[in-house]
Automatic annotation (TrEMBL):
Keyword tags: Endonuclease, Hydrolase, Nuclease
UniProt lineage: Bacteria, Pseudomonadati, Bacteroidota, Cytophagia, Cytophagales
Domain Cas6b N-terminal: 3-104
InterPro entries named in the record: Cas6b_C, Cas6b_N
GO MF assignments: endonuclease activity
Pfam families: Cas6b_C, Cas6b_N
Protein name per UniProt: CRISPR-associated endonuclease Cas6
Superkingdom: Bacteria
Species: Lacihabitans lacunae
Domain called Cas6b C-terminal: residue spans: 109-220
Length: 224
């Protein structure tokens, strides 16, 4: 079991899906690049491979930030700025807070199950991308992705300091046709799926590859 501090900030300004990464960069610049949780890079530019404590995304069409644990403490570096206006490319974006919700979430494996959808999920690297394409049977494809989803949840759990000591149950009930996207000069498959698991996942948390920039966003659909 893990008590997780969880802060969701939604702004009233709209951004496009392809602008989320630029939104991240603009917020990190405003907060100060010396505060590494905003961008997860060392001073020399190398990536810090850890689960992101500050995540950038869209809620509806609006720009939003999700902060967990240490990210909750660090976000004040942005809010103490003289102005919250940022630039995405040449476009100035004035940010005003639409909603701010602070919660403490109990992360654990439950006896009951919960229903979710996950959007823009990137479960496959270059190696298992080829393995997935070779699987012809839909049931086998779903089972393959269910294992990846469990793996993503376990990876997230390790990143927040939660030791998963029970079996995670997983079933994907709906899987949309994946889209091929270009991400960081690589071609990847992006999935939308509806799934059921016995882990409670807070709304808008990101799991899987590039969780910090709007990929793998989980949302409750009709929890039991």
């Amino acid at each position: 079991m893990k008590k997780l501090r969880y802060l969701t900030i939604e702004f009233d300004s709209e951004i496009a899906p392809y602008e989320v990464a630029a939104f991240r960069g603009a917020i990190a610049q405003k907060a100060g690049f010396e505060h590494v949780l905003f961008h997860n890079h060392q001073k020399d530019g190398t990536v810090i491979y850890k689960y992101p404590s500050i995540q950038y995304k869209r809620i509806g069409r609006n720009a939003a930030i999700v902060c967990i644990e240490d990210g909750v403490d660090e976000i004040h570096h942005f809010f103490q700025s003289r102005t919250w206006n940022i630039f995405i490319g040449d476009k100035e974006l004035p940010l005003k807070v639409k909603s701010l919700n602070m919660n403490q979430i109990t992360m654990q494996v439950w006896e009951k199950t919960f229903d979710y959808e996950i959007n823009n999920w990137l479960p496959l690297n270059q190696d298992n991308f080829k393995i997935y394409l070779e699987i012809k049977d839909l049931k086998e494809k779903i089972e393959f992705l269910e294992k990846k989803l469990i793996g993503n949840i376990i990876s997230m759990a390790k990143g927040i300091g939660w030791d998963v000591d029970k079996e995670i149950k997983m079933s994907i009930s709906k899987l949309d046709e994946p889209r091929i996207i270009k991400h960081k000069s690589q071609k990847l498959l992006s999935f939308r799926a509806v799934f059921r698991t016995n882990v409670f996942i807070p709304n808008h948390l990101g799991i899987g590859k590039s969780a910090s920039t709007g990929f793998g966003v989980v949302k409750s659909v009709n929890s039991n």
